[in-house]
Amino acid sequence: MENLPKGDKKLLNAWAFYDWANSVYSLVIASAVFPIFYGALTVIRDENGKILDDTVYFLGFDFNNDTLISYVTAAAFLVVSFLSPLLSGIADYSGNKKGFMKFFCYLGAVSCIGLFWFDMEYLWFGLLCYFFALIGFWASLVFYNSYLPDIAFPDQQDRISAKGFSMGYLGSVILLVLCLVMILFYDTFGFENEDLPTRLSFVLTGLWWIGFSQYTYYYLPKDSKKQKITKNVLFNGFKELRKIFIKIKADKTLRTYLSAFFMYSMAVQTIMLVAVYFGIEELDWGTTDSTIGLIVSILLIQLVAILGAWGTAKISARFGNIQTLIGINIVWVAICIYAYTIHSPMQFYVTAAFVGLVMGAIQSLSRSTYSKMIPEGEKDTASYFSFYDVAEKIGIVIGMSSYGFVAQLTGSIRYAILFFIVFFIMGIILLVITPKKRLKTSI
Length: 443
Description:
Blueprint: H1 9-31, H2 33-42, E1 44-45, E2 51-53, E3 55-58, E4 61-64, H3 65-94, H4 97-114, H5 123-146, H6 148-151, H7 154-184, H8 195-219, H9 233-250, H10 252-282, H11 290-319, H12 321-339, H13 345-373, H14 381-410, H15 416-432
Antiparallel strand pairs: 1-2, 3-4
Helix pairs in contact: 1-5, 1-7, 1-8, 3-5, 3-9, 3-14, 4-5, 4-8, 5-14, 7-8, 7-11, 7-13, 10-13, 10-14, 10-15, 11-12, 11-13, 12-13, 12-15
């Protein structure tokens, strides 16, 4: 079909629908089912649920189970951080953004399916699937996000970005609930125990991601093919990247905002990745089933995040994007201070509700704010968004490495929260000094 015009409602909805397709990875693999599955495999408990041993032997070394998964996570994000700028430069040069987006989408989805075979005997294979699933998810987002200024006008970007995140939260909740019904009522479905339905959840995640993404691919603009891919494509990718880097370096608004985003995103993304591990090891669940409790908190975060994303789009329209982001970061500081003191499930639920409210808000608004800052008419949007992606991913590498180091050093991940408070405060300071000139709309 012919490309739909910029701002077309059908095109905007199709773009936002990719969040519906891929967010099941964030919830089922990164946040809910897989972390609990991994914890069950790697932690030995007594009959009262007390942890007896959480050591994992891998590649000739003994690791704390949290430390191992955090290091693998950090390594994957490091790969994405180096890979995505280069690939985005090549994509912009060759006009092949959709092709790269599809490749990483399918890599991530197939890797999710591969987690079906995750076990301690072949731990390397399971961790490799986890590694590539993460790379596929985050690398595809670079190209997905870069379409935002291509398909939406500045006054549409806050709203459609919020719609994307909201659809993602809703779609992922639907699949998670389906998986939970299958896991919790395994005998009703003819399973002997929870293991097989849990593993089937990973397969469903991959199939959901591949299947629903086809709607997005059908309507996204066709690749322009402005240049053929030749043996010099690597050189041209670097050249494209260097050109955008020089532009960003000369633009104080973009440069300062990216620095602020780097600081607060480091904390936000790490918190999202380690929340379940924190709940497993730091809370006193007593007679409460910790698995059900953690799932309830995750669902709470997802549902409240929908309200956060939509509400923030309305608030930012009145007060401006930067001022709204400053306010959201202040709320995050308060959440971290409270989270450092919690021990009971009820306190965890309260924290989860507030995390959900500001998680959807900060993710949605950060993306659309950056999109508004890209110069009007700029064609190389994938390269611009690769720098946004690098700021986010390098931040996660530092955050996850700090988390793993603190867990290994102290035996408790609670103290890592103190690092997050510092990151949010630095983000607030940088947002305050971000210049507000040359704006497409109010930010």
